[in-house]
Amino acid sequence: MTSTAKRLSASEWAEVVMLYERGEASQRELAEKYGVSRQAIQAGLAERGAVMGIRIDEVVSEAKDASEKARRQRIEDVTSMKQRYIQYNDLLAKMVIKKISEASKVGGMGLAALNAELLTLKTASYVFQKTRQEQFDLYDVSALDGDGDEMPELSVSTYTDEELNQIQAANEEAYNEHLLGDDGDDDEPGV
Fold it and tell me: Which of 32, 36, 61, 71 is the Cys-Cys partner for 40 at CB 3.0 to 4.6 Å?
């Protein structure tokens, strides 16, 4: 009973040589992968002048490139996430300022209603901060830029009448300028 030895094609030999020279497979592993004897692999590699690991620099370079690409993608993802959280933070801050401004106007809501709405915004702020921190921890943001807490913190509290009046007086002019700028109702060109 005779057995026919498997012969590798030219493309299979090219792959065998590449894997061997890149240090990605030993002669034994190549023999198992291609279903031939170790001696056949050894003889074929010698015939082709293959040297184990001679092309290892290619593997190192490819690994560095892949690592750098993954790092850049991670930075891009984290930057995008940070931008979203900045927008969320700005939205919450604007909502708080709007409620305070509405309450201070004549005929506005009473302090009890304002405090209830501020408490709701405070809860939303807490959820926002907790979610942000969990995502920053998951993405290990501090490892990317050394500072995982770059985002400004939004502080919402229950205010007394006197504190509300002080806040309203301090912010009314800036808030009104902001509103005029958003509506385009101001008289200054280009603003």
Answer: 36
What value does the CA radius of gyration of the chain take, rounded to a whole number of Å? 33
Cα–Cα distance, 57 to 60 (Å, whole number)? 5
Q: Is the per-residue pLDDT at 8 higher than 70?
A: yes
Residues 169 and 174: their CA atoms lie apart, in Å, by 10
What kind and span of H or E run contains 158?
none
Domain that holds residue 81: 70-183
- Report CA-CA distances (Å) from 44 to 27, 33, 34, 48, 125: 10, 15, 13, 6, 68
Q: How far apart are CA 189 and CA 191, in angstroms?
A: 6
User: In the structure, what pLDDT confidence band is assigned to residue 179 with cuts at 50, 70 and 90?
Assistant: low
Q: Report the number of distinct structural domains present in the chain.
A: 2
Q: pTM value?
A: 0.48
Q: Helix or strand or coil: residue 25?
A: coil
| Domain membership flag for residue 1 | no
18 pLDDT band, cuts 50/70/90, is: very high
- Residues 157 and 118: beta-carbon distance below 8 Å: yes
